[in-house]
Design brief:
- By secondary structure, the protein is an alpha+beta fold.
- The protein has a single domain, classed as Nucleoside diphosphate kinase-like domain (Alpha-Beta Plaits, 2-Layer Sandwich), CATH 3.30.70.141.
- It is built from 8 helices and 4 strands, in the order βααβααβααβαα.
- A 4-stranded antiparallel sheet has the order 2-3-1-4, with helices on both faces.
- The radius of gyration is 15 Å and the shape is globular.
- The mean pLDDT is 97.
- Bound molecules: inosine-5'-diphosphate (IDP).
- Inosine-5'-diphosphate binds next to loops.
């Protein structure tokens, strides 16, 4: 894989779906030049919620988090591009939308820590992107293709 091919897991959370923000989130990532390589509109069950958020098990907010993430459909996605995991995290902003800078997805679209619109793999957690992609997607659900504008997004493409 070239260095433009890092993949990261992104999810429009139930609040984003209910508020009609799927398109807004996809648009921001698309316009940045990131490439959508997988997408699944789905309902997360208890088991998947516990696996996905396993690191938070035992914390006071864990049960509420599981309840929220299973409360309605989500849009699970895989996005690809140079430094994709860290770049998406920067676009998301701080975990608490109250601390997220304007211009970020959470800073523009959210107000509450428990309803913070979007999930993206943690770039500081080595391999989190691949683990989360594997948890939500089978290999054959991810698509290999070139975006027509890649030569304009990347100088060395
Ligand atoms: P992240 O989503 O920015 O990676 P994490 O620390 O991994 O942040 O937390 C996962 C999710 O758990 C957050 O996105 C948020 O929805 C929820 N969460 C984290 N901390 C709290 C809290 O203190 N109270 C309520 N919900 C929280």
């Amino acid at each position: 894989m070239s260095h433009h091919d890092e993949r990261t897991f992104v999810m429009a959370k139930p609040d984003a779906v209910q508020r009609g923000l799927i398109g807004e989130i996809i648009q921001r990532l698309e316009e940045r030049g990131l490439k959508l390589v997988g997408a699944k509109f789905m309902q997360i069950d208890e088991e998947l919620a516990h696996e996905h958020y396993g690191e938070h098990e035992g914390k006071p907010f864990f049960e509420g988090l599981v309840e929220f993430i299973t409360s309605g459909p989500v849009m699970a996605m895989v996005w690809e591009g140079a430094d994709a995991t860290r770049q998406v995290r920067q676009m998301m902003g701080e975990t608490d939308p109250a601390d997220a800078q304007p211009g970020t997805i959470r800073g523009d679209l959210g107000l509450d820590l428990g309803h913070n619109v979007i999930h993206g793999s943690d770039h500081e957690d080595e391999g989190a992107n691949e683990r989360e992609i594997d948890l939500f997607f089978d290999d054959e659900e991810l698509v290999d293709y070139e975006r027509a504008d890649a030569v304009w997004v990347y100088e060395d493409e």
